[in-house]
Amino acid sequence: MKTTPGTRRRCAPALLILFLAACGPSGERPLQGYIEGEYMRVGAPFAGTLQQLSVQRGDPVASNAPLFTLERENELAARKQAEGQLQSALARLENLKTGKRAPEVQSVEEQLRQAMVARELSAANFKRQESLFKSGFISSAALDDVRTRMKSDDALVEQLKAAVATAKLPGGRPDEIRAAQADADAARQALAQADWRLGQRAIVAPLAGRVNDTYFVVGDFVPAGSPVVSLLPAANVKVRFYVPEPMLGRLRPGQTVSFTCDSCGAPMSATVSFIADRAEFTPPVLYSKENRAKLVFLVEARPAAEVAAKLNPGQPVDVTMPPAQK
Q1: If you placed Cys at 122, which of 59, 150, 270, 320 could pair as Cys (CB 3.0 to 4.6 Å)?
Q2: What are the tens digits of pLDDT across the range 110-154?
């Protein structure tokens, strides 16, 4: 279609309105920037064969959601052993605190009664043998054997009397109880350590986010400390842009800026979290006739979690500065 001077005059106001709308309320052009992500690489402190991989690239994960599991048969066996040692130590401690049960006390008392009867028999037998020795019917060696038996029965009676007295006490001796308590505490710590080592074989997501990449497949041997899954939490997504030196005074940490991106819909906001303390020349990726050879300052701003979930690292954005205060 042929354009006449009148047509050009009618189109000029419309073009001017579009240009001003693109420049924002203050008439400034938006600043160029991009989205950057700080990735969290999750690994295990111990080596092992990858037994299960619970996520794939691009999956959203919640906090404490399972990520991967390494072989852990040895750790399971160690935990069972530690649990058994703890139960044994606690049972011994409880037994020392409560003392002997009634049937156990009765059993010791019955042993004492039998020992006293045996001692009476030994004493009577010694008297008979002593009379025979005086009459010359037995040797001194035979009399010594009977005397030794009687002394042995006396010692057994005294031993069982002490055992009955100990069994009737309300609990064990204080030093025995303290030793048993220390054994139980040590067993409890050993179980906690076994639980920790077992937990380090089944890794969960430390934060909610999106799986960026996985570096091993099931069956691979994973060296200790090697990352298996790369996560991008929403809190680690930020907007990076460069502010010309004349406009730097309009920004401060905690201030809000708005930004837009292609096909993102309505403008979004982010909170300024970092302002570089050193100037630099305009990065080559932002070279243009308008800002070439000008000094700029790097600024980082973090969007809200629900906004960050919609953004991708490397995505270009246009940042609108807050208006200058008069």
Answers
A1: 150
A2: 888 888 888 888 888 888 888 888 888 788 888 888 888 888 888
Asked whether residue 276 is domain-assigned, the answer is yes
Q: Is residue 14 part of a domain?
A: no
Whether residues 162 and 214 share a domain: the answer is no
- The answer to whether position 11 is within a domain reads no
Q: Exposed/middle/buried for 309, CB within 10 Å: 0-12, 13-18, 19+? A: middle
Q: Cα(116)–Cα(94) distance, rounded to whole angstroms? A: 32
Identify whether residues 91 and 187 lie together within a single domain.
yes
* pLDDT tens profile 225-250: 999 999 999 999 999 999 988 888 88
Same domain for 224 and 139: no
| Residues 44/45/48/54 CA torsion (nearest 10 deg) | -10
Backbone angles phi, psi at 210, to 5 degrees: -120, 135
What pTM was computed for the model? 0.61
Cα–Cα distance for residue pair 74/197, rounded to 1 Å: 10
Give the count of domains, the chain.
Answer: 3
Q: Is 257 helix (H, G, I), strand (E, B) or coil?
A: strand
